[in-house]
Structure to design on (699 residues):
């Protein structure tokens, strides 16, 4: 019904759109998109906001950040000129006026093209790397340049910092290589400085070509997404090419690195990694990493700053077996290079898998199930579902005589909501699992309707900061029912909202076919609530047993997203808690005692402080000696933590007997299983979860 209403609404304004487009023929597609997105946001978004002056200022600030986050293009007079529209964006959006958009688009394009003079001037003459000066990299601590002279100086320092960083890194590599061989050719600082400038100039010339090719459609995507982001951080417009890429990623039918990417701060941010993909298997990439440069094989890297998203993604994609080198910026601000071999995504690693854990004496046998995502084959009713696979793994584990079960949801970003409900139902009789609330009407309670309980023994669920959405629903249900113990980072991600992807072409009348394809709109339409009535939004799930995490002092999670929906609560659903009381206080005390004396956990705590300190360090010296000293200190400090998760724990990890026969005939499966055993054998978090299970068994 709502779809019909929306189609009718768009159809009724079609005549008006055509009249507006007649006067602005070059902007016809943008006008149609404006109206279609406007109708979706006002009629179907979970929490529509008043399109008023407050909305206008919110959109203005988001848009300005996305156009010039680092304050390297606009002058203060440009900001003053654009600021005349600060309280008018709402009126333009409602009236389908593109006056502000056109002005800002033309202005930023002009400023971008003017930058060639700056990088050409500064990268064709040597920098003096022995001058005591510094550069602030945090845009929030700087202001827009008052004139061309200040802008020119900002570019000089920014470019010089990039040169200094390259030279310092090369000097460090030379020094390490010289320790291993006396045949290494040592280059002087001047030689390395010249090489750095040359490489940077090539990168910036490539960037400049891309800037020249940017068209109004590219700018419009930035503008319309700035409007949508004023509602919440997960709703977004996807141009036609992005929609194709989204469908391809969902199907997993491509060759590449297996990461979902979106543009942020001019680069590509890792939003998710497909389980089993090269990026996921590398263990060196994480959600929120920024990809800054891409190199094919052994070629020089290409800086992707402000490159069109589809063009940047095309550089990263490639045939199976080829090498791609990615320069990434981590959450703590450190810059690393990750080398990946492109591959067809190995689907087997995206499914539930299990092993047996035993202590040194062999007396305690604990089953372990790893679930990378809540999967469901929507194209095939008889296709694989995680609830069925987990039930099957439980049966196999029980045949081997386990004393308890650990379910690992670390880095599980979610997936199918129905599967999360069914999987929770494997661990208690029928009852409510989660409540869902749309913008109108009463909350809908999703129940497990199967009265059977697949597993009734002691249960531990592992989570971390990257456990989100469906993972949070499952963990929350287990916690609310008192069914098991949640072990992990201080909280889960805190994403308690549901998005639906809408193909915009389906909502626009045939008389406007000439502007199609329009792309898609991912819109937040619902919110999750636990059976106890509180939402998982913002706060996530707080574990019963909290373990140290290297990122625990960083600002990460849904609560750090701008304009995220708020935390609230509704009435609790009627449910019957598990019939066995868990002595959580006693178990928490025992875990705290172990963690406080565990050398690696203490290193993780210390490392969290280091990561926070480096993240807060935003002003850098442009004197090569001072910069190099800082770099060496950071490298030395980082080496203190290299042994974390690198040494074997006390646990013995073994494959299930039921799986061994299949591994003999399938070498790929054996390789996956062997890698899993190797990784788990060094996992101190898993070891602590095992100890928690032993405490549960003693109760």
């Amino acid at each position: 019904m709502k779809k019909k209403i929306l189609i009718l609404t768009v159809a009724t304004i079609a005549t008006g759109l055509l009249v507006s487009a007649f006067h602005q023929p070059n902007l016809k597609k943008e006008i149609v998109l404006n109206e279609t997105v406007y109708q979706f946001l006002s009629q179907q978004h979970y929490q529509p906001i008043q399109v008023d002056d407050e909305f206008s200022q919110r959109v203005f600030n988001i848009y300005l950040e996305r156009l010039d986050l680092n304050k390297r293009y606009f002058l203060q007079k440009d900001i003053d000129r654009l600021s005349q529209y600060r309280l008018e964006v709402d009126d333009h959006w409602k009236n389908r006026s593109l006056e502000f958009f056109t002005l800002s688009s033309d202005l930023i394009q002009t400023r971008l093209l003017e930058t060639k003079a700056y990088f050409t001037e500064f990268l064709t003459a040597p920098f003096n790397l022995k001058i005591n000066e510094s550069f602030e990299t945090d845009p929030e601590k700087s202001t827009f340049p008052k004139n061309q002279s200040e802008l020119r100086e900002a570019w000089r320092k920014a470019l010089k910092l990039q040169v200094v960083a390259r030279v310092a890194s090369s000097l460090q590599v030379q020094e390490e290589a010289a320790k291993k061989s006396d045949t290494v050719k040592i280059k002087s600082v001047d030689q390395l400085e010249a090489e750095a400038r040359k490489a940077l100039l090539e990168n910036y010339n490539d960037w400049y070509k891309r800037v020249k090719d940017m068209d109004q459609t590219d700018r419009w995507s930035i503008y319309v997404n700035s409007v949508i982001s004023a509602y919440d951080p997960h709703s977004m417009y996807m141009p036609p090419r992005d929609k194709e890429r989204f469908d391809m990623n969902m199907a997993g039918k491509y060759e590449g690195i297996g990461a979902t990417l979106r543009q942020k701060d001019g680069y590509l941010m890792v939003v998710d990694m497909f389980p089993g993909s090269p990026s996921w298997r590398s263990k060196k990439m994480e959600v929120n990493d920024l990809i800054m440069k891409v190199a094919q094989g052994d070629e020089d890297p290409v800086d992707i700053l402000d490159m069109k998203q589809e063009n940047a993604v095309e550089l990263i994609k490639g045939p199976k077996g080829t090498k791609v080198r990615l320069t990434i910026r981590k959450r703590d601000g450190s810059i690393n290079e990750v080398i990946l071999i492109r591959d067809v995504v190995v689907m087997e690693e995206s499914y539930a898998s299990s092993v047996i854990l035993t202590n040194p004496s062999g007396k305690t046998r604990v089953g372990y199930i790893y679930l990378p995502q809540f999967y469901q084959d929507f194209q095939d009713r008889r296709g694989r579902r995680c609830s069925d696979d987990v039930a099957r793994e439980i049966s196999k584990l029980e045949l081997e005589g386990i004393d308890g079960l650990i379910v690992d949801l670390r880095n599980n970003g979610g997936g199918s909501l129905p599967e999360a409900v069914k999987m929770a139902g494997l661990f208690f009789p029928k009852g409510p699992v989660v409540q869902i609330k749309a913008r109108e009407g009463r909350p809908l309670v999703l129940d497990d309707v199967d009265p059977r309980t697949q597993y009734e023994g002691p249960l531990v669920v592992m989570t971390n900061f990257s456990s989100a959405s469906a993972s949070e629903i499952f963990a929350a249900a287990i916690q609310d029912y008192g069914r098991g113990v949640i072990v992990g980072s201080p909280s889960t991600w805190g994403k308690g909202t549901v998005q639906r992807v809408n193909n915009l072409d389906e909502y626009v009348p045939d008389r406007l076919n000439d502007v199609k394809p329009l792309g898609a709109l991912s819109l937040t339409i619902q919110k999750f609530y636990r059976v106890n009535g509180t939402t998982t939004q913002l706060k996530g799930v707080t574990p019963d047993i909290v373990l140290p995490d290297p990122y625990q002092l960083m600002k990460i999670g849904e609560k750090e997203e701008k304009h995220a929906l708020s935390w609230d609560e509704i009435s609790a659903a009627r449910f019957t808690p598990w019939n066995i009381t868990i002595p959580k206080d006693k178990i928490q005390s025992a875990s705290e005692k172990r963690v406080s004396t565990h050398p690696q956990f203490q290193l993780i705590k210390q490392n969290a402080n280091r990561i926070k300190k480096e993240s807060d360090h935003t002003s850098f010296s442009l004197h090569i000696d001072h910069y190099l000293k800082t770099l060496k200190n950071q490298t030395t400090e980082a080496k203190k933590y290299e042994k974390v998760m690198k040494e074997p724990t006390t646990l013995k990890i073994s494959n299930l007997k039921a799986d061994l026969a299949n591994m003999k005939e399938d070498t790929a499966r054996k390789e996956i299983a062997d890698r899993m055993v190797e990784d788990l054998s060094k996992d101190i978090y898993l070891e602590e979860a095992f100890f928690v299970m032993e405490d549960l068994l003693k109760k």
